[in-house]
């Protein structure tokens, strides 16, 4: 067993967890001049952070729960993040159809208030209240780039063609798309560029305080190691409470509520680029979003999850629920036969005692234990506010690291994001001009994944053959090597389901062939590293 830091200084921060919160904190801390090591037991974004609805949004429905601070912070972040990552995030318009039968969930503060003031409404969502909510949504976050909400005549607007004729009125508002798992990887990559050490497939099996330091034991490809750190950050997501109780062997009264969010991906259901925000008669909502050009993403569910976090699956019952919900709006019913893929993740919400999974807060809680070497436990959070969460985490730890520089991440580009927020089409056009063998779709896929780094990936190639082996669906050896060298990918699933969604286009045989090639290439890389 080796001990990291025995012959040198310990690191300032050791972070457990390679989801968006852990990688966001690693990037922030490294940019402040702190030394950082992060350990993730699997691949980056392997759990919750690759199973979101892929949105930077304020959370329109959270206004019903009077979570104004959370919504304001998230809305303020939308454009801050959009400017910093225009390759993996872009504006989207959401169409919200309305009908008189729409109701609030019975356990929301808004429903209870209206029940007292307007008992004759019987829990319905009146049109004037939705309009007021959208006006509030527009004003809360200081919107500058995104266009404002507007009313929509669904009998004339193209968005109404895919809907049942009974939907004649609605509204349209703005939020942003984000490639969630790429967001995690790019934060980790930027943290490493700024000096952090990122250890994937490395599990923390124990940690204990010894004097003013943490001694953290890990198991990974290089065997068992001990790392020393001045502070420990537990960003274990769904495993955060288990890490406190079992890995750290510390008593705690804090916990998480595991809420399963499941999604289905179907064949393309409509022929425009706007999204739908559907309200159910039970007070719940789902989205229907254009996805990967040829598909539609529908979700999400909210179910309390009783099993292990990594056992989350979209159940047949959830698939039926989402199909039925969407079919209540679309002119053509959505059936199980339309589904091409499903995914499910567990949201680690701070356990605030809410009666239902839908009502549980999406806000985050940072708990600092300073009895000896500091321990910061991260509970909850949402992908839109990850950067603010990281800043808050560093503020909590500031007293222990007076040498750290101040906050810096707002609007600072992630790798490949150094171009205007609306510049992706021009970037793709430039790629096609300089690399004529690229198709329009191929060029845009590379821009949406790598931004300005797409040129570094393509290098001096003059034909597709110069990019090496073709794995299918425009995935080449050059791209896979880039992902292995710079983005921590080791297996085919890392590439086709997290660094991209090419798994929707590749056959099982093609994915197996890619996995075999990556195993061989990874073994060769390790052999060279050992001899070097």
Characteristic terms for this protein:
single chain; 532 residues; alpha/beta; FAD/NAD(P)-binding domain; D-Amino Acid Oxidase, Chain A, domain 2; Helicase, Ruva Protein, domain 3; 3 domains; 10-stranded mixed beta sheet; 32% helix; globular; disordered N terminus; FAD-dep_OxRdtase; flavoprotein
State the domain count.
3
CATH architecture of the largest domain: 2-Layer Sandwich
Helix content: 25-40%
> How many individual β-strands?
21
Task: Point out poorly predicted stretches.
Answer: 1-7
What is the name of the CATH class of the largest domain? Alpha Beta
Shape: globular
Count of DSSP-assigned helices: 14
From the 3D structure, determine the CATH topology of the largest domain: D-Amino Acid Oxidase, Chain A, domain 2
CATH superfamily of the largest domain: D-Amino Acid Oxidase, subunit A, domain 2
Q: Quick check: average pLDDT? A: 91
Largest sheet: 10 strands, mixed
Strand content is 15-25%
Q: Given the helix and strand composition, which structural class is it?
A: alpha/beta
EC number: 1.1.5.3
Organism: Cereibacter sphaeroides (strain ATCC 17023 / DSM 158 / JCM 6121 / CCUG 31486 / LMG 2827 / NBRC 12203 / NCIMB 8253 / ATH 2.4.1.)
Protein name: Glycerol-3-phosphate dehydrogenase
Pfam family, one: DAO
Description of the molecule:
With 532 residues, the protein is α/β, with parallel strands linked by helices. It folds into three domains: 153 residues, 3-Layer(bba) Sandwich (FAD/NAD(P)-binding domain), CATH 3.50.50.60; 179 residues, D-Amino Acid Oxidase, subunit A, domain 2 (D-Amino Acid Oxidase, Chain A, domain 2), CATH 3.30.9; 105 residues, Helicase, Ruva Protein, domain 3 (Orthogonal Bundle). The chain is 32% helix and 24% strand. It has 14 helices and 21 strands. Strands 4, 5, 6, 7, 12, 13, 14, 15, 16 and 17 form a ten-stranded mixed sheet that branches. Strand 18 and strand 19 form a beta hairpin. The N terminus is likely disordered.
């Amino acid at each position: 067993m080796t001990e990291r830091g025995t012959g040198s200084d310990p690191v300032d921060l050791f972070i457990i967890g390679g989801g968006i919160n852990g990688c966001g904190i690693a990037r922030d801390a490294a940019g402040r001049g702190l030394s950082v090591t992060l350990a993730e037991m699997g691949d980056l974004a392997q759990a919750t952070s690759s199973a979101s609805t892929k949105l930077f949004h304020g959370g329109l429905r959270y206004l019903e729960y009077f979570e104004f601070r959370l919504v304001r912070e998230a809305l303020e972040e939308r454009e801050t993040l959009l400017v910093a990552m225009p390759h993996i995030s872009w504006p989207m318009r959401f169409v919200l159809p309305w009908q008189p039968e729409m109701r609030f969930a019975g356990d929301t503060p808004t429903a209870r208030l209206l029940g007292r003031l307007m008992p004759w409404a019987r829990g319905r969502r009146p049109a004037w209240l939705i309009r007021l909510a959208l006006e509030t949504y527009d004003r809360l976050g200081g919107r500058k780039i995104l266009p404002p909400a507007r009313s929509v005549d669904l009998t004339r607007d193209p968005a109404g063609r895919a809907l049942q004729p009974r939907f004649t009125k609605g509204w349209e508002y703005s939020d942003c798309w984000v490639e969630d798992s790429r967001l995690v990887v790019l934060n980790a990559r930027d943290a490493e560029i700024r000096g952090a050490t990122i250890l994937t497939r490395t599990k923390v099996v124990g940690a204990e305080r010894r004097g003013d330091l943490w001694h953290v034991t890990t198991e990974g490809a290089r065997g068992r190691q001990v790392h020393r750190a001045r502070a420990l950050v537990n960003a274990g997501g769904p495993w955060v409470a288990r890490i406190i109780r079992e890995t750290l062997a510390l008593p705690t009264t804090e916990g998480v509520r595991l809420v399963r969010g499941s999604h289905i991906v179907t064949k393309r259901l409509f022929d425009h680029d706007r999204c739908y925000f559907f309200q159910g008669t039970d007070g719940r909502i789902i989205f229907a979003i254009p996805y990967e050009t040829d598909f539609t993403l529908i979700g999400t569910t909210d179910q309390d999850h009783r099993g292990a976090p990594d056992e989350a699956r979209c159940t047949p019952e959830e698939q039926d629920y989402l199909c039925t919900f969407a079919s209540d709006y679309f002119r053509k019913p959505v059936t199980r036969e339309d589904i091409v893929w499903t995914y499910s993740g567990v949201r680690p919400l701070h356990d605030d005692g809410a009666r239902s999974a839908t009502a549980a807060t999406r806000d985050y809680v940072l708990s600092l234990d300073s009895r000896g070497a500091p321990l910061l436990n991260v509970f909850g959070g949402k992908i839109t506010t990850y950067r603010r969460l990281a800043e808050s985490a560093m503020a909590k730890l500031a007293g222990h690291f007076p040498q750290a520089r101040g906050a810096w991440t707002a609007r600072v580009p992630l790798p490949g994001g150094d171009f205007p927020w609306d510049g992706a089409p021009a970037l793709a056009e430039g790629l096609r001009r300089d690399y004529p063998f690229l198709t329009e779709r191929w060029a845009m896929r590379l821009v949406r994944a790598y931004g300005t780094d797409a040129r570094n990936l393509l290098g001096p190639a003059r034909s597709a053959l110069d990019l090496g082996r073709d794995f299918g669906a425009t995935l080449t050896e050059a791209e896979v090597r880039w992902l292995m060298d710079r983005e921590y990918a080791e297996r085919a699933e890392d590439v086709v389901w997290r660094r991209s969604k090419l798994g929707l286009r590749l056959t099982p045989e093609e994915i197996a062939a890619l996995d075999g090639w990556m195993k061989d290439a990874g073994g060769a890389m390790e052999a060279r590293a050992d001899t070097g």
